Structures
1.
Amino acid sequence: MSLTLSQKIDQTVTNVADFPKPGIQYKDITPLFLNPQLSQEIIDAFIEKAKGKVDIVCGIESRGFLYGIQLAHQLNVPFVLIRKAGKLPPPTIAQSYDLEYGQATIEVNSTYIKEGDRVLIHDDVLATGGTAEACAKLVEKCGGKVAQFSFIIELDFLNGQEKLKPFSDDLVSLVHY
Ligand code: AMP
Protein backbone atom coordinates (compact mmCIF):
# COMPACT_ATOMS: atom_id res chain seq x y z
CA MET A 1 0.00 0.00 0.00
CA SER A 2 1.37 3.45 -0.84
CA LEU A 3 2.14 5.83 1.99
CA THR A 4 0.30 9.10 2.60
CA LEU A 5 2.26 12.34 2.44
CA SER A 6 2.12 12.60 6.27
CA GLN A 7 3.58 9.10 6.60
CA LYS A 8 6.36 9.88 4.13
CA ILE A 9 7.28 13.05 6.02
CA ASP A 10 7.12 11.20 9.35
CA GLN A 11 9.47 8.51 8.04
CA THR A 12 11.93 11.08 6.70
CA VAL A 13 12.16 13.67 9.49
CA THR A 14 14.69 12.80 12.21
CA ASN A 15 13.98 13.09 15.95
CA VAL A 16 16.94 14.35 17.93
CA ALA A 17 16.56 13.97 21.70
CA ASP A 18 17.77 16.73 24.03
CA PHE A 19 18.68 19.20 21.27
CA PRO A 20 19.34 22.12 21.49
CA LYS A 21 18.50 21.80 25.23
CA PRO A 22 17.77 18.89 27.58
CA GLY A 23 14.09 17.86 27.35
CA ILE A 24 13.55 19.14 23.78
CA GLN A 25 12.73 16.57 21.09
CA TYR A 26 14.10 18.35 18.01
CA LYS A 27 12.50 17.65 14.63
CA ASP A 28 15.23 17.79 12.01
CA ILE A 29 13.54 18.48 8.68
CA THR A 30 16.76 18.69 6.64
CA PRO A 31 16.48 15.06 5.36
CA LEU A 32 13.38 16.22 3.42
CA PHE A 33 15.64 18.38 1.26
CA LEU A 34 17.65 15.34 0.19
CA ASN A 35 14.54 14.11 -1.63
CA PRO A 36 13.45 16.33 -4.52
CA GLN A 37 10.35 14.27 -5.32
CA LEU A 38 9.06 14.37 -1.74
CA SER A 39 9.91 18.08 -1.51
CA GLN A 40 7.80 18.76 -4.62
CA GLU A 41 4.92 16.75 -3.12
CA ILE A 42 5.15 18.89 0.03
CA ILE A 43 5.11 22.12 -1.99
CA ASP A 44 2.19 20.83 -4.09
CA ALA A 45 0.22 20.04 -0.90
CA PHE A 46 0.80 23.57 0.42
CA ILE A 47 -0.17 25.06 -2.97
CA GLU A 48 -3.39 23.04 -3.06
CA LYS A 49 -4.40 24.54 0.32
CA ALA A 50 -3.34 28.13 -0.50
CA LYS A 51 -4.22 28.70 -4.15
CA GLY A 52 -6.59 31.60 -4.75
CA LYS A 53 -6.40 32.68 -1.11
CA VAL A 54 -3.12 34.61 -0.76
CA ASP A 55 -1.43 37.70 -2.22
CA ILE A 56 1.92 37.28 -0.40
CA VAL A 57 3.83 34.49 1.33
CA CYS A 58 5.90 35.44 4.41
CA GLY A 59 8.57 32.94 5.47
CA ILE A 60 9.93 32.86 9.02
CA GLU A 61 13.75 32.75 9.43
CA SER A 62 15.30 30.51 8.53
CA ARG A 63 13.64 27.19 7.75
CA GLY A 64 10.45 28.96 6.66
CA PHE A 65 12.44 30.32 3.71
CA LEU A 66 13.19 26.93 2.19
CA TYR A 67 9.80 25.76 0.94
CA GLY A 68 8.31 29.24 1.48
CA ILE A 69 9.95 30.90 -1.51
CA GLN A 70 9.20 27.94 -3.79
CA LEU A 71 5.59 27.91 -2.62
CA ALA A 72 5.24 31.66 -3.23
CA HIS A 73 6.74 31.62 -6.67
CA GLN A 74 4.80 28.55 -7.78
CA LEU A 75 1.66 30.40 -6.61
CA ASN A 76 2.95 33.37 -8.65
CA VAL A 77 2.93 35.73 -5.63
CA PRO A 78 5.75 37.66 -3.89
CA PHE A 79 7.84 36.11 -1.10
CA VAL A 80 8.75 38.25 1.93
CA LEU A 81 11.39 37.37 4.54
CA ILE A 82 10.62 37.76 8.24
CA ARG A 83 13.98 37.86 10.04
CA LYS A 84 15.49 38.20 13.48
CA ALA A 85 16.18 41.80 14.52
CA GLY A 86 19.18 43.48 12.94
CA LYS A 87 19.43 41.28 9.84
CA LEU A 88 17.31 43.29 7.39
CA PRO A 89 18.30 46.77 6.15
CA PRO A 90 15.86 49.67 6.70
CA PRO A 91 13.03 50.45 6.30
CA THR A 92 11.82 47.78 8.73
CA ILE A 93 9.05 47.34 11.25
CA ALA A 94 9.57 45.22 14.40
CA GLN A 95 7.60 43.02 16.78
CA SER A 96 8.88 41.61 20.09
CA TYR A 97 7.62 38.48 21.79
CA ASP A 98 8.31 36.48 24.94
CA LEU A 99 10.50 33.40 25.00
CA GLU A 100 10.82 30.92 27.86
CA TYR A 101 13.65 33.11 29.14
CA GLY A 102 13.69 36.70 27.89
CA GLN A 103 12.44 38.22 24.66
CA ALA A 104 13.04 38.04 20.92
CA THR A 105 12.33 40.51 18.13
CA ILE A 106 11.52 39.88 14.48
CA GLU A 107 11.43 42.35 11.62
CA VAL A 108 10.06 42.72 8.10
CA ASN A 109 10.56 45.32 5.39
CA SER A 110 7.84 47.90 6.08
CA THR A 111 7.00 48.57 2.42
CA TYR A 112 6.46 45.06 1.02
CA ILE A 113 3.10 44.17 2.62
CA LYS A 114 0.37 46.49 1.43
CA GLU A 115 -2.95 47.49 3.03
CA GLY A 116 -5.45 44.65 2.60
CA ASP A 117 -2.95 42.06 1.38
CA ARG A 118 -3.94 38.46 2.19
CA VAL A 119 -0.83 36.94 3.73
CA LEU A 120 0.26 33.33 4.17
CA ILE A 121 2.66 32.87 7.11
CA HIS A 122 4.86 29.82 6.59
CA ASP A 123 7.37 28.01 8.82
CA ASP A 124 8.74 24.51 9.33
CA VAL A 125 7.48 23.71 12.84
CA LEU A 126 4.60 25.10 14.92
CA ALA A 127 5.57 24.61 18.57
CA THR A 128 4.24 27.08 21.20
CA GLY A 129 3.07 29.45 18.46
CA GLY A 130 4.93 32.47 19.89
CA THR A 131 6.97 33.07 16.74
CA ALA A 132 4.07 32.74 14.28
CA GLU A 133 1.87 34.91 16.54
CA ALA A 134 4.52 37.68 16.48
CA CYS A 135 4.65 37.39 12.66
CA ALA A 136 0.87 37.73 12.50
CA LYS A 137 1.07 40.92 14.61
CA LEU A 138 3.76 42.24 12.26
CA VAL A 139 1.58 41.51 9.20
CA GLU A 140 -1.35 43.36 10.80
CA LYS A 141 0.88 46.33 11.72
CA CYS A 142 1.68 46.60 7.99
CA GLY A 143 -2.05 46.61 7.15
CA GLY A 144 -2.14 43.00 5.91
CA LYS A 145 -4.54 40.25 6.93
CA VAL A 146 -3.40 36.73 7.78
CA ALA A 147 -5.15 34.46 5.28
CA GLN A 148 -3.48 31.20 6.30
CA PHE A 149 -0.70 29.71 8.45
CA SER A 150 1.17 26.71 7.07
CA PHE A 151 3.68 24.38 8.69
CA ILE A 152 5.28 21.07 7.80
CA ILE A 153 4.99 19.88 11.40
CA GLU A 154 2.70 20.83 14.29
CA LEU A 155 3.44 19.79 17.87
CA ASP A 156 -0.20 19.53 19.03
CA PHE A 157 0.61 19.09 22.73
CA LEU A 158 2.04 22.66 22.87
CA ASN A 159 -1.30 24.19 21.77
CA GLY A 160 0.24 26.69 19.36
CA GLN A 161 -3.06 26.76 17.41
CA GLU A 162 -4.77 28.63 20.26
CA LYS A 163 -2.39 31.60 19.88
CA LEU A 164 -2.99 31.76 16.12
CA LYS A 165 -6.80 31.47 16.01
CA PRO A 166 -7.42 35.20 16.69
CA PHE A 167 -5.57 35.98 13.43
CA SER A 168 -6.87 33.21 11.15
CA ASP A 169 -8.56 29.86 11.68
CA ASP A 170 -7.11 28.61 8.39
CA LEU A 171 -4.14 26.56 9.63
CA VAL A 172 -2.43 23.86 7.57
CA SER A 173 -0.02 21.34 9.12
CA LEU A 174 1.08 18.34 7.08
CA VAL A 175 2.07 16.18 10.09
CA HIS A 176 0.88 16.29 13.70
CA TYR A 177 2.71 14.95 16.76
P1 AMP B 1 7.39 28.44 18.63
O1 AMP B 1 7.53 29.94 18.60
O2 AMP B 1 7.50 27.86 20.01
O3 AMP B 1 6.16 27.96 17.90
O4 AMP B 1 8.67 27.86 17.89
C1 AMP B 1 8.71 27.88 16.53
C2 AMP B 1 10.12 28.01 15.99
O5 AMP B 1 11.07 27.23 16.71
C3 AMP B 1 10.13 27.50 14.59
O6 AMP B 1 10.80 28.46 13.77
C4 AMP B 1 10.83 26.17 14.63
O7 AMP B 1 11.77 26.10 13.60
C5 AMP B 1 11.52 26.12 15.97
N1 AMP B 1 11.17 24.91 16.77
C6 AMP B 1 10.45 24.90 17.92
N2 AMP B 1 10.37 23.67 18.43
C7 AMP B 1 11.03 22.85 17.59
C8 AMP B 1 11.30 21.43 17.56
N3 AMP B 1 10.86 20.60 18.51
N4 AMP B 1 12.01 20.96 16.52
C9 AMP B 1 12.46 21.78 15.54
N5 AMP B 1 12.26 23.10 15.52
C10 AMP B 1 11.56 23.66 16.53
2.
Amino acid sequence: MQTILPVAQCGEAILTLIAAPISESEFGSAWLNTLADTMQDTMLERNGVGIAAPQVYISKRVIIVASRPNPRYPDAPEMDAVVMVNPEILAFSSEVVSGEEGCLSVPNERGQVQRAEKITIRYRTLNGKAVETEFSGFPARIVQHEVDHLNGVLFVDRV
Ligand code: ZN
Protein backbone atom coordinates (compact mmCIF):
# COMPACT_ATOMS: atom_id res chain seq x y z
CA MET A 1 0.00 0.00 0.00
CA GLN A 2 1.18 3.47 -0.80
CA THR A 3 1.13 6.05 1.94
CA ILE A 4 1.68 9.69 1.14
CA LEU A 5 2.37 11.95 4.07
CA PRO A 6 2.00 15.73 4.29
CA VAL A 7 5.32 17.55 3.90
CA ALA A 8 6.34 20.12 6.52
CA GLN A 9 6.75 23.58 5.07
CA CYS A 10 9.36 26.28 5.65
CA GLY A 11 8.50 28.16 8.86
CA GLU A 12 7.34 25.07 10.75
CA ALA A 13 9.29 24.31 13.93
CA ILE A 14 9.90 20.62 13.07
CA LEU A 15 12.27 21.74 10.28
CA THR A 16 14.48 23.65 12.72
CA LEU A 17 15.13 20.81 15.19
CA ILE A 18 18.21 18.61 15.54
CA ALA A 19 16.77 15.16 14.70
CA ALA A 20 17.39 12.23 17.06
CA PRO A 21 19.48 9.20 16.04
CA ILE A 22 17.80 5.86 15.39
CA SER A 23 18.67 3.63 18.36
CA GLU A 24 20.12 0.10 18.12
CA SER A 25 16.80 -1.53 19.03
CA GLU A 26 15.06 0.20 16.10
CA PHE A 27 17.26 -1.29 13.33
CA GLY A 28 15.34 -3.97 11.39
CA SER A 29 12.07 -2.98 13.05
CA ALA A 30 8.77 -2.80 11.20
CA TRP A 31 8.46 0.84 12.27
CA LEU A 32 11.76 1.85 10.65
CA ASN A 33 10.97 -0.04 7.41
CA THR A 34 7.51 1.52 7.26
CA LEU A 35 9.00 4.96 7.84
CA ALA A 36 11.43 4.47 4.93
CA ASP A 37 8.67 3.15 2.61
CA THR A 38 6.41 6.06 3.46
CA MET A 39 9.20 8.60 2.95
CA GLN A 40 9.97 7.00 -0.43
CA ASP A 41 6.31 7.09 -1.55
CA THR A 42 5.98 10.72 -0.46
CA MET A 43 9.22 11.70 -2.21
CA LEU A 44 8.23 9.99 -5.48
CA GLU A 45 4.74 11.47 -5.44
CA ARG A 46 6.23 14.97 -5.12
CA ASN A 47 8.98 14.39 -7.72
CA GLY A 48 11.71 14.81 -5.13
CA VAL A 49 15.25 13.46 -5.53
CA GLY A 50 15.71 13.18 -1.78
CA ILE A 51 13.82 13.46 1.47
CA ALA A 52 14.58 13.62 5.19
CA ALA A 53 12.35 12.25 7.96
CA PRO A 54 11.78 15.67 9.60
CA GLN A 55 10.05 16.71 6.36
CA VAL A 56 7.30 14.18 7.16
CA TYR A 57 7.16 15.31 10.82
CA ILE A 58 9.41 12.55 12.18
CA SER A 59 12.41 14.10 13.92
CA LYS A 60 14.75 11.14 13.35
CA ARG A 61 18.03 10.82 11.47
CA VAL A 62 16.83 9.03 8.32
CA ILE A 63 17.27 10.31 4.76
CA ILE A 64 16.71 8.98 1.26
CA VAL A 65 18.93 10.02 -1.63
CA ALA A 66 17.47 9.14 -5.02
CA SER A 67 18.78 11.17 -7.93
CA ARG A 68 16.92 10.54 -11.18
CA PRO A 69 15.56 12.70 -13.98
CA ASN A 70 12.03 13.93 -13.26
CA PRO A 71 9.91 17.00 -14.04
CA ARG A 72 11.51 18.98 -11.17
CA TYR A 73 15.10 17.92 -12.02
CA PRO A 74 15.22 16.94 -15.72
CA ASP A 75 19.04 16.73 -15.80
CA ALA A 76 19.56 14.68 -12.63
CA PRO A 77 21.70 11.55 -13.06
CA GLU A 78 20.04 8.19 -12.44
CA MET A 79 21.02 6.23 -9.31
CA ASP A 80 19.44 3.56 -7.13
CA ALA A 81 17.66 5.10 -4.16
CA VAL A 82 19.70 4.81 -0.96
CA VAL A 83 18.15 4.92 2.51
CA MET A 84 20.70 6.25 5.02
CA VAL A 85 20.16 5.94 8.75
CA ASN A 86 22.22 8.09 11.14
CA PRO A 87 24.31 9.50 8.25
CA GLU A 88 27.56 11.27 9.12
CA ILE A 89 29.59 13.19 6.59
CA LEU A 90 33.21 12.28 7.38
CA ALA A 91 34.96 14.45 4.81
CA PHE A 92 34.16 17.27 2.40
CA SER A 93 36.30 17.91 -0.70
CA SER A 94 38.02 21.27 -0.77
CA GLU A 95 36.53 21.72 -4.23
CA VAL A 96 33.22 23.55 -3.88
CA VAL A 97 30.62 23.88 -6.63
CA SER A 98 27.60 26.12 -7.00
CA GLY A 99 24.35 24.52 -8.15
CA GLU A 100 20.62 25.01 -8.17
CA GLU A 101 18.56 23.49 -5.37
CA GLY A 102 14.92 23.29 -4.49
CA CYS A 103 13.17 21.58 -1.59
CA LEU A 104 9.82 19.89 -1.03
CA SER A 105 9.53 22.06 2.09
CA VAL A 106 10.19 25.31 0.22
CA PRO A 107 7.63 25.42 -2.60
CA ASN A 108 8.27 27.40 -5.78
CA GLU A 109 11.73 28.53 -4.78
CA ARG A 110 15.12 27.64 -6.19
CA GLY A 111 18.50 28.95 -5.22
CA GLN A 112 22.19 28.60 -6.04
CA VAL A 113 23.92 26.82 -3.17
CA GLN A 114 27.65 26.17 -2.67
CA ARG A 115 28.40 22.56 -1.76
CA ALA A 116 31.45 20.34 -1.60
CA GLU A 117 31.85 18.53 -4.93
CA LYS A 118 32.67 15.26 -3.20
CA ILE A 119 31.95 13.82 0.24
CA THR A 120 32.76 10.73 2.24
CA ILE A 121 29.82 9.48 4.26
CA ARG A 122 29.17 6.81 6.84
CA TYR A 123 25.64 5.58 7.48
CA ARG A 124 23.70 2.51 8.62
CA THR A 125 21.24 0.55 6.50
CA LEU A 126 17.69 -0.18 7.71
CA ASN A 127 19.04 -3.42 9.16
CA GLY A 128 21.90 -1.68 10.89
CA LYS A 129 24.77 -2.59 8.57
CA ALA A 130 27.47 0.11 8.58
CA VAL A 131 28.42 1.51 5.17
CA GLU A 132 31.16 3.97 4.28
CA THR A 133 31.19 5.38 0.76
CA GLU A 134 31.77 8.44 -1.41
CA PHE A 135 29.45 10.55 -3.52
CA SER A 136 30.28 13.28 -6.00
CA GLY A 137 28.40 15.74 -8.16
CA PHE A 138 24.61 16.00 -7.88
CA PRO A 139 24.16 12.98 -5.56
CA ALA A 140 26.75 14.52 -3.18
CA ARG A 141 24.72 17.74 -3.27
CA ILE A 142 21.54 15.83 -2.35
CA VAL A 143 23.29 14.08 0.57
CA GLN A 144 24.51 17.43 1.94
CA HIS A 145 21.03 18.98 1.50
CA GLU A 146 19.31 16.06 3.30
CA VAL A 147 21.85 15.90 6.15
CA ASP A 148 21.24 19.64 6.63
CA HIS A 149 17.55 18.81 7.25
CA LEU A 150 18.62 16.56 10.15
CA ASN A 151 20.39 19.55 11.68
CA GLY A 152 17.52 21.99 11.23
CA VAL A 153 19.03 23.75 8.21
CA LEU A 154 17.21 24.58 4.95
CA PHE A 155 18.91 25.49 1.67
CA VAL A 156 17.45 28.98 1.92
CA ASP A 157 19.65 29.42 5.03
CA ARG A 158 22.69 28.85 2.79
CA VAL A 159 21.82 31.09 -0.17
ZN1 ZN B 1 14.90 19.77 1.30
